[in-house]
Prior knowledge:
Elements (H helix, E strand, L loop, with lengths): L2 H23 L2 H7 L4 H29 L2 H20 L3 H29 L5 H30 L1 H13 L1 H6 L16 H12 L4 H28 L4 H28 L3 H20 L3 H29 L5 H29 L2 H21 L26 H4 L5
Helix pairs in contact: 1-5, 1-6, 1-7, 3-5, 3-14, 4-5, 4-7, 5-14, 6-7, 6-11, 10-13, 10-14, 10-15, 11-13, 12-13, 12-15, 14-15
Amino acid sequence: MNIRKELLYIYSLVLIVTFGYHLISHFLPIYLDSLGISLLNIGVIYAFAAIIAGILRFPVGAISDTFGRRPLLLIGVLGYPLFAILIAFSQNTFFFASAKVIFNIFSMVFWVGIGAYLFDVVSKKHEGRQIAGGNIVSCLSAAVAPLIAGVIIASLGFTNLFYISAAVTASAIPLALLIEKNKTRKHKKIKIDWEYLQKEYSDIINSKGFRIVAFICVLTNFVWAFWYLLFPIYLTQLGFSTVVIGGVLTVNLLFIAFFHLFLGKWTDSMSGRWLIIPGFFLMWLSGYALIWTRNLIGYALSRIGYSTGISMSWHPAYASLARRTPKKEHGGAVGLFGAVTSLAYAFGALIAGWMAEVYSVKFALMTSSTIALIMGVILLLMSKHIIKARWLYSYTNTKYKKHHVTHEMVHKHHDR
């Protein structure tokens, strides 16, 4: 296997898809709000789509372990240009919800395929660096997109932005065809039924540490939904233009890309306890800083702080999942883990939309930060599982050294 070539294909796919999608992702809540769709209904749109895609992750993960990664990549990448075109023609809550459901299904298929395929091709003892490379590519491409999108919206309008996004993401289709069939693992074809799914996912759920890992990442995705959905709307309500908002998001993502250079190394060299718990407290402090600040620099720093806290809390927990998952169940692990975290994101989006509609966007954001504080305290008190957990220790301190993964490839892109 030519690992360098396969990694180049993966990085290129991630770059194109992430850039094209993030041209519209951060501004979609603003667009829906500008059409007069209520904040509650915006939350419903995001939540319903995440629930459907989350449920479907269960069989898709197992299917990828049986039939390979290439079919998932080819099917998944088609959803991105389709979504952008559907959004351009949608005019009410029902059509937007339908378009979002269709997209989330395709996106879920793509990210399950790319995540499992990346697990397959990384070289032994270089997992952290090689997967971190994909994370950095993802962050950098996502970072450039909001600023460019803000300029396009200001000069050409939302509709043209959607068409441009469709053209960009469609360019990834030929690249997906380059993934060779024989590069995925070959398994004996078996029947995908309830008994098979039950056995595969039972093995994963019962692996040591899975439940606490899922608990941490479910909580992280829940509070992240508030910020992903409401932060752009909050800045819009304060009177900032799409260009300025795009600039804030770009600075945030550039910092996170830089932060990943260190986060991967820290996860390889220290216990996750020094990252997970401080991450939740950083979310709390950053959230309250956003509420009380009165200038653009403060808003930008608060967003950076919150995103950094999310990365610190998610990254070590997800890395431990990669260490413990048997190679033959990579797809199932990615599918199952993505399902539970997607459902958490859906619930968070629904609650965020309801709070913003009934109370205010500011109140909803403050609530998410308070929840992060409570989470941090709970995890701090769970010393038996967090502080003393050998499975959560660094790469060099655990006997499970075969696989290692970092944050962005799966977390982001529950809408990610």
